[in-house]
Amino acid sequence: MRNNLPKGNAAQLMAINHVDGPAMVLAGPGSGKTFVIVERLRCLIEEHNVEPSSILVITFTKAAAFEMQHRFMKITDSSYPDVNFGTFHSCFYQIIRWANPKRKIDIATESFKYRLVSDILHSLSVTDSKIKAELDLGDDIVKDVISEISRIKNSGLSPDDCDRSFAFYSSFHLMIKKYSALMDEFNKIDFDDMILMCRDYLLKDELLLKRCREKYRFFLVDEYQDINKMQFEVLSMLCGDSNNLFVVGDDDQSIYGFRGSDPGLMLGFKEFFESRKFVPKIINLNINYRCGKKILDSSKLVIEQNTERFKKEIHADKESIEGKVLPLIYSTKEKECEAIKAFLLANMDELSEIAIICRTNAQCGQYAAFLKKNGIKTNLDDRKTAFYECEGVRVLLNYLSFAYLGQRREDYLKIINKPLRFITRETATKETVSEGDVLKFYAGNPKMQRTALMFFKQINMISHLRPGLAVRYLRKDIGIDKLYQKDMDKLDELEKIAREYGDVKKLLKELNALIDESFDNKKKNSKKSERAVNIITMHGSKGLEYKAVWIPSINEGIIPSRSALNKKQIEEERRMLYVAMTRAKQALIMSYLAGSKENPMLPSRFLRPIRSLWEENYSSSPSKPSSGSSTSSSNSTSSR
Length: 640
Fold this sequence. Notes:
By secondary structure, this protein is an alpha/beta fold. The chain has 26 helices and 13 strands.
């Protein structure tokens, strides 16, 4: 019997004390869901004698799993280390290992997938002008294709079910076919394949399924709103007849549709278990302990416009402050940036407690660059790497090293499939890799021999060029620029430096010394960083909280994004704004751009339910708000 009973509200205690059968906890922002999960774990073990090793706690990220485990160990004095914590992927990996211990699982990294899809798109662009045009504009197309492939797999769909709003709908069938073929060629799988593989093993192997069910008898899933169809299928198989599934989530915070997450699965939880002759318990954690009352009320008005959701009555804790919502309008992006700067300069002592939350990574980069130029530190500053630290430059230097420093195996392995040539690592059996050895490996395979001959011909060309020309050849003829479009500025910088040298070996020697010096300095300077404002995307803000939040440029075409065409996509965009708004504890600043008479801009349709905030702010006084004060001020920036 526990001496220290948890202190919680009525809904939290109901969830903590739930034992058998299915239960779904609707946990709004700031409602104490982690407290509920770890206390329920303790309750199961100490009050109901559940074997700790029979409990499986599943999260979506390693960081979340670690935090949950740490919290649980802290409240139990590390008494139950045998409770299982993991991500969906780590759990599925373990099941696959049980099914086939001898199978080697080589999981493709995100960078490998990026290179693979990039290569596919460049090959298709030869005959498809639309793809070529998109590639010329930037690398977003690669990310879009990867996301759609992931969505199709996680939703259990076929390539024919590609979203018709996808820009390359007509070519997608060919893209995913090539992607699958190349993954097989390299004997790799991605995380989405792992889910499908796990499901197939469980469907075919009754003994494996029995083993899993005997080991795991109680399942707890965090952030359940982010689950996809394939994950749910595996989870429901593992639960079996016991149906001991306890899930915690908030359908209003489901914002990962691009990878197959479906809030409909959460909405259908009750119906699913009723079809199994079970009556699931639905518990609503309806007290928000984070946001000030005015912030929460405004957030609720926004999200209540969505129709595909659970209706909830969320209210602020009795002890919560009122909070402030400051609605602002600016004629231009430049004036909005200047106002943000003024606000931050007035609150330099609290920078780490302030967040600027944007819809896209591109916006984050723009604000970070502007603030850095004006001497305001951001969390993104440290991500700016020296030119020799980015991947495109490193690969290019590896090519030069291979060509000029004795064709070493370590350099060969780093360049042989950049771009993709399908040359296996097994061709490098010696410390020095020769053309003859590679050709001998591919004896009887004329196609791969031709590929190898072309590679060594290119290496020979590089070895006879001056540094500047060698870099130019690698960028344009080998294709480094196409592979690493995001690194163009750094590659330009390297080429400029290379032109100043007459000898490649000397260039490599001095650059390597510079890299070593930079690494040493980083180790010396790895102390706690100074205060910095947080600039994050709406996706990245999930689970975080700040004293003050500024959401800039809340305009049509930005939020919702121009790519959001149907009702399902629009509602997900609205959920993103809701997530951003509910990160704020004390002050929420929301601004949009009005544009000019010649080029007017529209505020986001999501602001309609709270447009009275702007009307009140701009009709009550003809004067402009002051240019900056503390986070607790109601008029903390300048506008228009």
